[in-house]
Amino acid sequence: MAWIKKNLIFLIASAISLGVLVFAIIFVNTKMDADKEVLTNLDEASQKYKDLLSRKVHPGNKKVDNIQRAKDQIVELASFSTDIKEYLKGPEPLANLNNREFRAQLDTGIAEMRRMAEESAVQLPNTNYWFTYSAYRTTVDFKDNAQGLYAQLQDLKSILGVLCQARVHSLVALRRVAVNESEYFGPNEYIGNRYPKTNDFAVTTGYEVTFQGFSSELARVMEGLANAKQCFVVKSVAVAQAPEERKPVGPPPVMAPMNTMGYPGGGSSYMSDPRYRMMMNPQMMQPIPRAKAAQPPGVKPVLDENKLRFTLMVDSVRLKPKPAGQTQPAAKAPAAAASAPGASEAPKAADTQAPAR
Fold first, then answer.
1. Half-sphere exposure of 161 (CA within 13 A, CB side)
2. What is the pLDDT of residues 305-331, one digit of tens each?
3. Cα-flanking dihedrals φ and ψ of residue 7, to 5°?
4. What pLDDT score was predicted for residue 298?
5. 63: which DSSP letter?
6. What integer pLDDT is reported at residue 20 of this predicted model?
7. Is the pLDDT of residue 186 over 60?
8. Would 73 be classed as within a structural domain?
9. What burial class does residue 287 get, using C-beta atoms within 10 Å of its C-beta: 0-12 exposed, 13-18 middle, 19+ buried?
10. CB within 8 A of 261, min separation 6: which ones?
């Protein structure tokens, strides 16, 4: 007992160490069992994968024809690929578009968009609005950006067509990404320092559209973008209360000319004319405000929707244009056709007539 009292701390530490060691052994054994189970499942999955790879393709039976199913799926995949390419193709780019031709296309496109807005009663920010192209009002040099500017002009025409078809109240602002670094002229008509994104298949161009209207008009705009002939992706929608419009102040009322031959009221001077006193005291000319009609108690408006301002971030997605001068390889004639009489002359004639794309 004396030894235990002298080494009590040592005994307590030894007991704790022994307990921790037992817990560690149990924990390691549990994890080893779980690891063995995972390895067993992995081995089974690997074996199934190897069996699937080594298994021979079965053509099916009378009920299930795997070969015909594969052919049908290939046809469906080709049809889907064609539809997607047609949907992402977008407006056709103009071949060999130079500065002079784009100048004519820009003027025509701006005039067409203004006419669309006027016919649909959509208010523009001003009567001389240039739809993010105000920096090109008089220029004739577009610095090899004509193709990119033309593609964005076609996108803006499509977006404005959706707004006009939805009959929105007014177009507040339009912004787009710059074609490249040399085309950025400030934040008023451009979305920061952003540019079109290009990958191996498509080009994505961003636009910011701000307009005023009601919730029903927003629904029509979203439906129009979804049903457009080209691919538009709405990234975000911001809603805010539209600012109140200030009503123009009308001209002051015109006073009737005074009769200098006689003065009303029996006076002998124009000072006694009440019209003169009214003209000298403008406060007498202000109309007396009318009291508003009292609303019956217990009556509440069922629908009191105010005009809203919507800001949409829209991306236009189109297929990546082919490099200039790229031509499609000519299709080879079947080998069986070579044995037919006159087959050696037909391909030559076809090659001379086929235009290069």
1. 14
2. 688 999 999 999 998 877 655 544 444
3. -115, 35
4. 59
5. S
6. 86
7. yes
8. no
9. exposed
10. none
The CA-atom distances, in angstroms, between 224 and each of 166, 218, 232 are 8, 10, 10
Residue of 72 and 249 predicted with greater confidence = 72
CATH of the domain at 124: 3.30.70.60
Q: CA 271, 277, 281 angle in degrees (round to 5)?
A: 145
SS3 349: helix
Number of domains in the chain: 2
191 and 176 in contact (C-beta within 8 Å)? yes
pLDDT of residue 159: 97
Q: What is the pLDDT of residue 335?
A: 42
- In sequence order, the 6+-apart residues with CB closer than 8 A to the CB of 41 are none
Q: Provide the 8-state DSSP code for 245.
A: P
| DSSP 8-state secondary structure symbol assigned to residue 228 | S
Q: Which residues contact 207 (CB under 8 A, 6 or more apart)?
A: 155, 156, 159, 174, 175, 176, 177, 191, 313, 314, 315, 316
Task: Give the whole-angstrom CA distance, residue 318 versus residue 132.
Answer: 20
Domain presence at residue 177: yes
* DSSP three-state, residue 186: coil
> Using one digit for the tens of pLDDT, what is the confidence trace for 120-130?
999 999 999 99
Structure-block tokens of residue 320: 């990546």
- Cα angle at 86 between 177 and 198, to 5 degrees? 30
44 and 105: one domain? no
- pLDDT over 50 (residue 178): yes
Range of the domain at 146: 99-244+307-319
3-state class (DSSP) for residue 240: strand
Segment 100-120, tens digit of pLDDT: 999 999 999 999 999 999 999
